Amino acid sequence: MNSVFFRRDVSVTDGAWVATAVSILLIFLFRIFKFRFFSSPSPSIADSVSHAQIQSRTPRVVSDDDLKWLIQNLEERNEAAEMWEHVIHKTNNRISYSAKRCKPTDGGPMKYLSVTVFEDCSAEVLKDFYMDNDYRKQWDKTVVDHHQLQVDSHTGIEIGRTLKKFPLLTSREYVLAWKLWHGNDNFYCFTKECDHDMVPRQRKYVRVSHFRSGWRIRRVPGRNACEIKMFHQENAGLNVEMAKLAFSKGIWSYVCKMDNAFRNYVAISHTPQGSVLSALTLIAKVPSELESQTVDVTVSMGTNRGEEILTQVAKQKKLSRKPSKKLIAKGLVLVGGAAICLSRGHSALGAKAALAYLLTKLNKRATPLKQTTHNTSI
């Protein structure tokens, strides 16, 4: 009798174990099935961008009013009310560059207005070159990182984040929104700072608090050349006088480097990926009321007014104090949000330390602008 009950207990126990094993197997298979077919992958920047492109619209941070403001500044309609200082005029057989600057009366960041003329090129290719951020990362070594955050297919506004390195200074973070327009014979682009939920502020970067930049590209009449006229205003939290000195001494070398990159861009027939949704592929038409207001005359500081500018620059140099060559032998160069380190020969540790000390003193003594929200740190 005991043996009978023993066999029954064993058979019941075995059945319980089998049932338990089957249940565990079914639960395991269900979880695999659910994970594979019903769950979504962990979110990434690319996934978020794709979702933003389809599901939501960006705030109208860039509008036709910004284009109107840009056209007024490019055509210098208010130039008589402002004191502009001519900075540089340089030229070679492939490119010419001229720039001037103005300190706004409202205490805002320094304003720059420049004209660059590229020989032997088309406006279409020049536009594509300026908007190709992936290619820029190859030739502009100051760009540490750039990625697209959001694109609105309804408004044509694109938002992106760019990280740029500054020698001896904290890297600057740019969160920007931009839009493109095309007119009868020209292209426009306007860019300004903005915020985005995907990019919270971080202490290890200095977020650029004020950024207004735009350009117009058009063909030079009677020549196989194109000009890009640019307005730029930025507050990156740097000493104003140091930035002015660095720009004057380093901008031409940067322009020549950009020209070499452009010629390589043309040689390899580099074209933007048409399948990628961007402000370039969503370029808008210039409103008719703004198109009629534009002046159909090429005002090129680099061609028509070259001799006049050279004369004015020479006079200003005589009146102003000449900076020390030792001070500018190694310096920080700002070019429209880009930074270049000018090095003459091999740098010594003592020279680097001296420059770091100088930049620290200048930053401490600089008067912060109204738009500054972050302190500059070395």
TrEMBL record:
Molecular-function annotations in GO: lipid binding
Regions that span the bilayer: 15-33
A GO term from the CC aspect: cytoplasm
Domain (START): residue spans on this chain: 82-267
Stored PANTHER family: PHOSPHATIDYLCHOLINE TRANSFER PROTEIN, POLYKETIDE CYCLASE_DEHYDRASE AND LIPID TRANSPORT SUPERFAMILY PROTEIN
Gene3D superfamilies in the cross-refs: 3.30.530.20
Record protein name field: START domain-containing protein
Annotated keywords: Membrane, Transmembrane, Transmembrane helix
